[in-house]
Design brief:
The protein has about 450 residues and is of the alpha+beta class. About 30% of the residues lie in helices and about 20% in strands. The chain has two domains: about 280 residues, FAD/NAD(P)-binding domain, CATH 3.50.50.60; about 160 residues, no CATH class. The strands form five sheets. It has a seven-stranded antiparallel beta sheet with strand order 15-14-11-12-13-10-16. It has a four-stranded parallel beta sheet with strand order 4-3-8-18, with helices on both faces. A hairpin with a 5-residue loop joins strand 5 and strand 6. Helix 1 packs parallel to helix 3 and helix 12 crosses helix 14. The protein is elongated and about 90 Å long. It binds flavin-adenine dinucleotide.
């Protein structure tokens, strides 16, 4: 049976744990009991019986945002709890790479639950209740200002089962000769992100898995003309996604915001949001869709035409390349591009532009249609739609409805949000609620067992 390795806590949390724990604290490497106040490695002491250690133990599968947040929360509430976090890769790796190194850890614009929930293509109905009330963006911001997080470990969990007396047996990938391949625990939290192994563990306990598909990606558009505009940013467009084979027009499939032209197609917040709301259908239709873009959403098409005709009257002697209506707030490169699409010579004077060309320019500005032929190729999609259905867990505790003492948090669940910190906030909130539930359960178990335990004599 393994020695419980250490979960290193930040100094503040460790100090709180030292104050509260009825056990002596000792280093994992030491076989002797030590109650040194400077120890920060919180592990089961050698005098503690194995059964007791297991009875008060939590295995967390996945040391990402949700897993680490939950571990620290559970440990803070139940300092005697032995917490073991397994990660097959590096801890908090996505937190480090996200946002291009400037991670959007949460979203400060939506501080109330309803506003938050609206940003989750998967979860917008279920998350309207207590989920973000329990721990919302402001709590996360406060938590970050209160803690520093330091963790080191590295093993993959490949499976888990439960014994007749309700204990979990967690299988750990054997990488070194002396590393155990099973760990027993009273509680298990699965916080494996979009890893297939996490879904397999959930399935082993009777959970169904909603097929995972990518979300938050760019659109590939093979319109050669677009290449000329590569790098141009539009601060505000209105874009509508129409999926082949789908008649309904969901309001979420129309989005307003910034858009960027890339050398392979279209990107930017508007496109990423559309990819999230249409993730499942886009996958179903092999990423074939039509995207209609309104480049000047604040001006009605009839007004666009009127402005163009007025400009023709007032600037009759100006070259069309050099003069265009300021109301449209267009970059010159895009205006010239529009003229090229009309095969108009830029040196022509406004007086010479045929009216039907002006009508077509207005149409292009208001409803340019692009064919989406694929999703942009990005090594890791930003986030995965799908996973364990929310109906199979309790959102007030994050506990499985199929298996007592089994918990889920983060992206392993069928929740994903649009860009802007919503995905991390789901992980923080779910992790916090799971950690709170486990910590509370462990504390109440501890109180029930206390008469039979030997307490730290100091
Ligand atoms: C490039 C990129 C940028 C992003 N930027 C942002 C952003 O700015 N803002 C935002 O809100 N969201 C962002 N996201 C999304 C965000 O990173 C995720 O939603 C979030 O990390 C999910 O947290 P999680 O804890 O559920 O899963 P993860 O962070 O994916 O953590 C899961 C962990 O579990 C481990 N694991 C998996 N299987 C096993 C196993 N069998 N045994 C042991 N360990 C296992 C993995 O190694 C991983 O460390 C970004 C994502 C990417 C890819």
């Amino acid at each position: 049976m393994p020695q419980w390795p250490s979960l290193q806590l930040p100094a503040a949390a460790a100090a709180a744990a030292r104050r509260a724990t009825p056990f002596a604290l000792c280093r994992s490497s030491s076989s002797s009991v030590s109650a040194s106040a400077s120890n920060q490695d919180l592990v089961a002491c050698s005098w503690q019986k194995e059964d007791e250690a297991e009875a008060q133990s939590l295995v967390v599968v996945g040391g990402g945002a949700a897993g680490v947040y939950a571990s620290i929360r559970a440990k803070s509430l139940a300092p005697h709890l032995n917490v073991l976090v397994f990660d097959k890769g590096r801890f908090l790796s996505k937190v480090k790479i996200s946002g291009g190194g400037r991670c959007n850890v949460t979203n400060g614009h939506h501080l109330e639950p309803l506003g938050m929930a609206r940003n989750y293509p998967r979860g917008h109905k279920e998350l309207r209740g207590s989920f973000f009330k329990n721990h919302g963006p402001q709590d996360t911001m406060r938590w970050f200002s209160d803690h520093g997080v330091e963790l080191k470990a590295g093993k993959a969990v490949t499976g888990a089962s439960v014994t007749e007396n309700g204990k979990f047996v967690v299988k750990v990938e054997k990488r070194t000769v002396d590393f155990v391949d099973h760990v027993n625990a009273k509680y298990v939290l699965v916080a494996t992100g979009s890893s297939q192994q996490g879904y397999s563990i959930a399935a082993q306990f009777g959970h169904s898995i909603i097929a995972p598909v990518p979300s938050l990606f760019t659109f590939k558009i093979t319109d050669k003309r677009l290449a000329d505009l590569s790098g141009v940013t539009f601060p505000i467009v209105k874009a509508k996604l129409k999926l082949d084979g789908i008649k309904r027009s969901a309001p979420e499939l129309t989005q307003i915001g910034p858009m960027l032209v890339t050398h392979w197609g279209l990107s930017g917040p508007v496109v990423l949001r559309l990819s999230a709301w249409g993730a499942r259908e886009l996958h179903q239709y092999n990423y074939q869709a039509k995207l209609t873009v309104d480049f000047i959403p604040d001006i009605h098409i009839e007004d666009v035409k009127r402005i163009l005709f007025l400009h023709k009257d007032h600037h009759a002697k100006h070259k069309i390349n050099n003069s265009f209506p300021m109301e449209f707030a267009l970059v010159k490169r895009f205006w010239k591009f529009l003229l090229e699409q009309e095969s108009l010579d830029g040196d022509m004077h406004w007086a010479s532009i045929p009216n039907n060309n002006l009508n077509t320019v207005a149409l292009r500005l208001k409803q340019w249609m692009f064919e989406v032929v694929a999703k942009g190729q990005f090594k890791d999609e930003f986030v995965t739609a799908g996973g364990v259905p929310l109906s199979e867990i309790s959102l007030s505790t994050m506990e499985s409805k199929k298996q007592p003492n089994l918990f889920f948090a983060g992206e392993v669940l069928n929740v994903d949000g649009v860009t802007g910190g919503f995905n991390f906030q789901n992980a923080w909130t779910g992790g916090y609620i799971a950690g709170t539930s486990i910590g509370t359960l462990a504390s109440s178990n501890m109180r029930q067992q206390q008469p039979y335990l030997q307490l730290d004599g100091s």
